[in-house]
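Reopening this one. Same input as before:
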Amino acid sequence: MPLNELLAAVSKLTHQDKLRLIHFLLLEVAREEGCNLESPDNQNQENMLLQQLESTEAVVWSPYEAYEAAQTLSELLIAAKKEGDA
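Same output, byte for byte:
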């Protein structure tokens, strides 16, 4: 199945099924990396993970109006340029 078809199918899943998919993908990637995150009590672990994910609020940071960060970056760029010119 092409990725664009898969993504269209995923977008139609329920919230609960999307969380199950995230859990499945996490276990698959971990397995590919040589880690085993599964335990004999996998159903309880899955339910606990789903509950944690459902109760978690996503925090998104934006550089919009992050003036101190912009100033710090500017100072670092000026210092790096001076070091490069020396």
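So the earlier flakiness isn't reproducible anymore. For the record, The chain has four helices and no strands.
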